[in-house]
Design a protein that fits this description.
Layout lengths: L5 E4 L8 H16 L8 H7 L5 H11 L8 H24 L9 H10 L3 E5 L4 H10 L8 E3 L12 H10 L6 E5 L2 H9 L3 E5 L14 E3 L12 E3 L11 H8 L2
Parallel strand pairs: 1-2, 1-4, 2-3, 4-5, 5-6
Antiparallel strand pairs: 6-7
Helix pairs in contact: 1-4, 3-4, 4-6
């Protein structure tokens, strides 16, 4: 087996637990600004998360439930673009305000990845502006070899296109990469690309079927903070904190 050379991170739910208190809240603020009475609650948004991409979620909502005022297909297509632009701006404001903290162990794990000489990349279907807010304004001490976001690919997760693109851009083979994902769709995308995957579940994804993950934990864990619960995988000397060297050793067997 080849030596591990990179770690690819999903963004939403992996780097920051953004879905429930970030994206969902920003969507609802946007709907109100645009004169709609629609409001996505916590459970309904989990249902919408099965649809990849924010613009696609709004279109799905329009098709299945309808917005609070009727619109034609042409009207909704134009409005979705406008609303998504505004929603992204509101989401970025939330991130930059510091109201959405990094997930436990994430920063430490990224630092360990760099110190081990491995490449760090972000592969997300979230908006590019949001990805930049996180990678350039919050994780300023992390060197990212590649940040793929938004509409850089035509097919969203669970399609493997974004991971295949990252492999191509960095000149890596499938057995040289570890992916950190959090959801069923993200895991499906990583697995379809032939990649080894650790799943860090969160509020929305802990009940999803992520059993195909090679390693499954509740989070990456902090030495002086929240500890990780190991749900699947043979991590040597596991003590509630997932270290990069442990995963490299496991996946290079």
């Amino acid at each position: 087996m080849s030596k591990i050379k990179a770690v690819f991170f999903d963004q939403d739910g992996v780097i920051i637990d953004t879905e429930r208190d970030g994206h969902r809240v920003s969507f609802n603020m946007t709907f109100k600004e645009f004169g709609f009475t629609d409001e996505w609650d916590v459970e309904y948004y989990h249902e919408l998360l099965q649809v990849g991409g924010g613009k696609e979620r709004m279109k799905h909502h329009w098709k299945t439930k309808g917005f609070s005022r009727p619109m034609t297909e042409e009207e909704i297509d134009n409005l979705v673009k406008e609303m998504h632009k505004r929603k992204t701006a509101l989401f970025v404001e939330l991130i930059e305000s510091g109201k959405l903290p990094l997930r436990p162990g994430l920063h430490r794990f990224m630092k360990e990845t760099m110190e081990a000489g491995l490449k760090v990349a972000v592969c997300t279907t979230s908006n590019e502006q949001a990805a930049k807010a996180i990678t350039e304004k919050i994780l300023t001490d992390i060197k990212f070899e590649l940040v793929l976001a938004g509409d850089v690919v035509q097919k969203k997760k669970p399609d493997p296109e974004i991971y295949n693109l990252a492999l191509s851009k960095l000149g890596l083979q499938t057995d040289e990469v570890i992916v950190v994902e959090d959801s069923k769709n993200g895991l499906a995308a990583a697995k379809a690309a032939g990649l080894k995957t650790i799943v860090t579940t969160n509020h929305y994804t802990e009940k999803e079927d992520v059993s195909a993950g090679d390693v499954i934990v509740s989070c990456l864990g902090d030495v002086d903070g929240e500890k990780a619960e190991l749900r699947k995988g043979d991590i040597k000397d596991f003590d509630g904190v997932v270290h990069v060297k442990q995963l490299v050793e496991l996946f290079e067997k």
